[in-house]
Design a protein that fits this description.
There is one protein chain. It is built from 5 helices and no strands. The longest helix is centred in the C-terminal third of the chain and has 17 residues. It starts with 9 loop residues before the first helix and ends in a 7-residue tail after the last helix. The chain has one domain. It is globular. By secondary structure, it is mostly helical.
Length: about 120
């Protein structure tokens, strides 16, 4: 699973990544050139939530980070924005956790990545 963002032009960004003919620029371009895209989920947010979603996905049993800094070379918190899972049940659990977090949390995604001063 790859977690990315496009704060401007989400549809154009996803369409570009899905094209077979494109210049290879982003990490995901290189992966999509050799792998099959099975599903694309899109959501809209005023916040860049890819780090939050990656953190939530990493908590799933047997989820792993196959390539360090993939899609997150500019991110100081994340090991990678590419998470490997083996089973569809893991994908379902990740999406459920993301949905639950999005509905119930009063915190911004960035707040789950950095401890508050009382947690240090």
């Amino acid at each position: 699973m790859y977690f990315g963002s496009a704060l401007n032009g989400l549809e154009r960004r996803v369409d570009r990544h899905l094209r077979s003919e494109k210049a290879l620029y982003w990490h995901i371009d290189f992966l999509s050139a050799v792998a099959t895209v099975r599903e694309v989920w899109r959501t809209y947010s005023l916040e860049n939530a890819e780090c939050c979603w990656t953190e939530l996905a990493e908590t799933i049993a047997e989820a792993s980070t196959p390539v360090l800094k993939f899609g997150s070379s500019d991110c100081i918190f994340c090991k990678s924005h590419l998470i490997m899972v083996t089973y569809k049940t893991q994908v379902n659990l990740i999406t459920r956790r993301i949905q639950e977090y999005s509905r119930s949390s009063g915190l911004a995604c960035r707040d789950i990545l950095r401890p508050s001063s009382t947690e240090i």
